[in-house]
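User: Working on a comparison across species. This one is Tripartite ATP-independent transporter solute receptor, DctP family from Cohaesibacter marisflavi. Can you predict its structure so I can line it up against the others?
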Amino acid sequence: MKHVLTCLAVAGMLVAGPALAQDTRTLSFGMQGTPGDPQYQGVMEAAKVLEEESNGRLKLEVFPNSQLGTFTEMMEQVTLGDLDFTLNPFGGMDPWVSRAVIASTAYVVKDFDHLQKILASDWGQGVLEEMRTENGWRTVDSWYFGTRETTSNKPITKLEDFKGMKLRVPNSAPQLQWAKAMGASPTPVAFAEVYLALQTNQVDGQENPLPIIDAMKFMEVQSNITLTNHLVQDQLVLMSEETWKDLSEEDQKIVMDAFKAGGLVNNKVVKDNEAALLSKFEDNGAKVNRPELAPFRAAMEPSYKELDSKFGEGIVEKLSSLAD
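Assistant: Here's the predicted structure for Tripartite ATP-independent transporter solute receptor, DctP family from Cohaesibacter marisflavi:
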């Protein structure tokens, strides 16, 4: 009798096993960020909501610290369906959809709310749709990453103060373009070497979002921070279109709800950090400069004309005016 019960139990497990496996699905999320940063906190909140709303049917396995490769490699994995989610800025999509570069051109985007209006516009939706149809990247949400500001040893209170400054910028066309338009001498330096370059006066200043400026301790070797607000950046939560189509409508809604919740956490942490860091820098003796930015934007007009000639007359002003 005992032998019969054992056989029946094993048979039951064989029948129930596949069904159980089908009822639980683990989705993968690859990212460059590290545990503790705002994006990671947002993703972990999304993971919690995903599991709660699906009653444990959906789980999220997170791979931080570029464990799965560079952002380009992870995006390729999302295209293939080997990875379910990753992050990449909207303005950084220009290698695949060239007109997206407008969003990473200085002073086109005023703030994160403005960027959301651009994404929601016919133009923004057209870019996102091309990403989905051509590369299999479905945009789930857009999270605030930060606004790039400028540090230096001499104060920058007007456009002319940039003249002749050796300014470290990333080796990206829009950033180099901005530095030149300001009258600075753009000087690409490897990110890991920026602190030393500032300390030894190889460069006179650099630009980054406030949390990066703090994490890299740049204000130890700089005395001024200027709110140039030249570039507002987000992180798109990108999902494999293949994965999306494989989910039920109910689970698609759960995914959207989960990442909206994650975005609220991320956005609050980033905005709170920005406000707190300015006070921290001032308390530590740094001077915070808040110049009138209209002349800075006016210096970008030749660049805007180039974008108009390439992507459609008036497109820059059309997108800029969405802030009003």
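For your comparison, note: The longest strand covers residues 224-240.

User: Helpful, thanks.
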